[in-house]
Amino acid sequence: MDFPEELKYSKEHFWVRVEGNRAVLGITDYAQIELGGITSVELPDVGYDLEQDDSFGSIEARKTVADLYAPVGGSVVAYNEELHDAPELVNDDPYDGGWLVEIELSDKEELNLLMSADDYQDYVAEVE
């Protein structure tokens, strides 16, 4: 499993890449392995406002459907349109091509509640 150092992580297995006042969100390598083959992803439109821990869509795999939860709050400024035709990008490349949404952060302090890569790796080891 991959745990990129530059990302922040939530206990719900989401990652956050901070880019100034914006953040790109996605599911972790661990989450995509647990879900199995992704068959569809439902994402919010641009302009949708997220509160931290809000459900903002769903991800469907061959064996389950899971809600997507915002690790931080903000307003959606972009979503990964490629996932409509190629949801398997989440499995193939969860940290780059399989990103979900980009948001304008509403409160950068929320980032302090997330885990570092080392902390997340320890967390995953505990839940396995």
Automatic annotation (TrEMBL):
<dbReference type="GO" id="GO:0005960">
    <property type="term" value="C:glycine cleavage complex"/>
</dbReference>
<dbReference type="GO" id="GO:0005829">
    <property type="term" value="C:cytosol"/>
</dbReference>
<dbReference type="InterPro" id="IPR002930">
    <property type="entry name" value="GCV_H"/>
</dbReference>
<dbReference type="InterPro" id="IPR000089">
    <property type="entry name" value="Biotin_lipoyl"/>
</dbReference>
<comment type="similarity">
    <text>Belongs to the GcvH family.</text>
</comment>
<comment type="subunit">
    <text>The glycine cleavage system is composed of four proteins: P, T, L and H.</text>
</comment>
<feature type="modified residue" description="N6-lipoyllysine">
    <location>
        <position position="63"/>
    </location>
</feature>
<dbReference type="Pfam" id="PF01597">
    <property type="entry name" value="GCV_H"/>
</dbReference>
<dbReference type="GO" id="GO:0019464">
    <property type="term" value="P:glycine decarboxylation via glycine cleavage system"/>
</dbReference>
<keyword id="KW-0450">Lipoyl</keyword>
<comment type="function">
    <text>The glycine cleavage system catalyzes the degradation of glycine. The H protein shuttles the methylamine group of glycine from the P protein to the T protein.</text>
</comment>
<dbReference type="InterPro" id="IPR017453">
    <property type="entry name" value="GCV_H_sub"/>
</dbReference>
<dbReference type="InterPro" id="IPR011053">
    <property type="entry name" value="Single_hybrid_motif"/>
</dbReference>
<dbReference type="InterPro" id="IPR033753">
    <property type="entry name" value="GCV_H/Fam206"/>
</dbReference>
<feature type="domain" description="Lipoyl-binding">
    <location>
        <begin position="22"/>
        <end position="104"/>
    </location>
</feature>
<dbReference type="GO" id="GO:0009249">
    <property type="term" value="P:protein lipoylation"/>
</dbReference>
<protein>
    <recommendedName>
        <fullName>Glycine cleavage system H protein</fullName>
    </recommendedName>
</protein>
<dbReference type="InterPro" id="IPR003016">
    <property type="entry name" value="2-oxoA_DH_lipoyl-BS"/>
</dbReference>
